[in-house]
Amino acid sequence: MEFIEADGLRIAYDRAGEGPLLVLVHGAAEDCRVWRFQLDGLADELTVVAWDEPGAGQSSDLPEGFGLAGYADELAALIESLGLGPAHVAGVSWGGTVALELYRRRPELVVTLIMIDTYAGWKGSLPADEVRARAAGARRMLAAPPAEFDPTFPGLFAGAPPAELVPLLADVAADVRPATLAQQLGIMAEADLTDLLPRIDVPTLLVWGRLDARSPLTVASQFEAAIGDTTLVVIEGAGHLSHLERPEQVNDAVRDFCRAHPPGAKR
Prior knowledge:
Layout: E1 2-6, E2 9-16, E3 21-25, H1 36-41, E4 47-52, H2 68-82, E5 87-92, H3 94-105, E6 110-116, H4 122-125, H5 128-143, H6 166-174, H7 178-190, E7 204-209, H8 217-226, E8 230-235, H9 242-245, H10 247-260
Parallel strand pairs: 3-4, 3-5, 5-6, 6-7, 7-8
Antiparallel strand pairs: 1-2, 2-4
Helix pairs in contact: 2-3, 5-7
């Protein structure tokens, strides 16, 4: 792991490879370890960087009152610190919402957006009754005694988690900080970035699991209709964490997209 200091926070990140910069933004209740297949599989032609967002992994705890803009500003600080120019920015689930806010605030840092099974915030992408149900479920999860706290969300995979991923998922879940998760889920429930989507003028890749029950394909269709330049790749047999469940297919889609849109190419 490598580290930077930004705005009084320590930000940890993993890095592999050389070439155009691809920055990976993990989901809630996760850290950079969920990108291990992308770090391994794409480093032959890209500089692949996966961060631990503030409040996760080896990064600092969240400051009080930290919001979506704070996450985006820390991500911008990481990209600038790398000195490799603007980046392909990929986010999964909550991480895609952070990537969108980064684009809102610092579009000059973004070559392309890669949205993987994500949302324009829960409020921006899901029916109001579903948002209420998720918020209530989050409150129950966070109110559980420490010995019973389980930050694993239902419906992350098309079926049971692949057996080879169970140790990784257990290790990541064991390191989740309840205070971080509470803050994130509150932000997600109120976030609505749909106003931004029509203003996105960088090529955008949409990667969606066919069987995603948390952010169904109807959400991908909303992105596709709102953003001017999109490519939709549907991953068969995958659920919400398609980059873990079908990493080769996701990596192929990301690789082809980054090749087609190199930094500095005219749009």
